[in-house]
Amino acid sequence: MASPLPVTERTRHRRLREQGSTDRQDLDDILRAGLICHLGVIVEGDPMVVPTVYGLDGDTVYLHGSVASRSLVAAPRTTVCVTVTHLDGLVLARSVFEHAVNYRSAMIYGVPRLVTDAAEKLAGLRALSEHLAPGQWDYARRPNKKELAKTTLLALSLAESSVKIRTGPPDDGDSPDAALPIWAGVLPLAASWQSPEPDPVLPAGIPLPPHIAALAHQRAGWPRLHPGQP
Amino acid sequence: MASPLPVTERTRHRRLREQGSTDRQDLDDILRAGLICHLGVIVEGDPMVVPTVYGLDGDTVYLHGSVASRSLVAAPRTTVCVTVTHLDGLVLARSVFEHAVNYRSAMIYGVPRLVTDAAEKLAGLRALSEHLAPGQWDYARRPNKKELAKTTLLALSLAESSVKIRTGPPDDGDSPDAALPIWAGVLPLAASWQSPEPDPVLPAGIPLPPHIAALAHQRAGWPRLHPGQP
Predict the structure, then answer these.
(1) Among residues B151, B99, B150, which one has the least CA distance to residue B124?
(2) Is A3 an interface residue toward B (CB < 8 Å)?
(3) Domain with B67 in it: what CATH number?
(4) What is the pLDDT of residue B230?
(5) If you count residue pairs, one on A and one on B, with CB atoms under 8 Å apart, how many are there?
(6) Which of A134, B145, B175, B225 suits B184 as a labelling partner, its CA being 20 to 30 A distant?
(7) What pLDDT is attached to residue A140?
(8) Which chain A residue shows the shortest CA-CA distance from B53?
(9) Which of B193, B143, B204 is nearest to A183 (CA)?
(10) In this complex, which of A97, A133, A186 lies closest to B90 when CB atoms are compared?
(11) Taking residues A212-219, what's their average pLDDT?
């Protein structure tokens, strides 16, 4: 099932190689579990790191925003780096030096393509909407021409991607420090949806739609990748 | 109490101005509530966005890593952008176009300084350790000379920072769409610590230290900024 990710000069794992994954399934799992990414783009010579939502469709990640967005205007002219990170816990070791975090992250490099085709633009925005809140595209009012014209959509290929994962206990359990009377382990962190908060001006009698109720009852955010973990 | 943040060409809020804050207290709150940042740095001409932990000390954010880290080697030679983001929920509007996320984010621009002074290096690493897990610095084994030599510490001034915050219900409650029979509101997201998981090789009889127990019992991660929210 798992196909390897191609390795380039930018995505080759140089250090902590045990944390690098070249498994396409890991990449997909991390991207599917995420809600926001951090888009890195060079704007007027300086790096700019912008949190933004994203969507997925096959081998493409979609990013959107206002046509006036500086980061989105700059992006299709240059290589960007899109990073999605899940923080899974603090790794508390015997020594300060061996402290770490458990995490899963994906980095995607590439020059994004400005989507101008009307049908792809609608499909990309649908992918974005459905990634965040499955079911909303068929429930909410879809974008009209004026709104589409105000929106920039970028498509970025997953072709050049890099995955890093750290799981498990501290690394100093087999070192001389393991004899110290110091507690060591992991303090896991998890995200979960809370109760939906209706808009205060919502008219009476409009029920919470089933797809949002289902989302809210998921222990969502970022499920763990590895079986056997709680 | 709240002093304004200085505004530069890079930190001036251009769009969605209602989301921009120039309140220093907001910046401090966002940074204190965060566990990881995304460091954006230009490496061999391309942007690279790396998730990493950080520490705080007054007007300085500290970043650390291996001396071999490509991002940390590149950083002191060039402007970087450090972004800390808290995702607080999905904003489900009547129209797809008005969908949004509630979030708090801080962006810090600057050229980091490589910390070479031994005392500052130790103090910076302490700030980093205490930011993530208060109490660990006095509990765990501190870094020795060899470990310090393997660690790069960078200091970045908060002088050029930008804050954006979105809270509250969707923006289309006063638009014609508000008459549509579509549920609208917010699906909040929160992070919380889970039960500590002792290292499987931890010898019997080493208790969980009180400072970690206290951290685990906090509803931690990223507390909401605004009173009145759950």
Answers:
(1) B151
(2) no
(3) 2.30.110.10
(4) 34
(5) 294
(6) B225
(7) 98
(8) A101
(9) B204
(10) A133
(11) 83
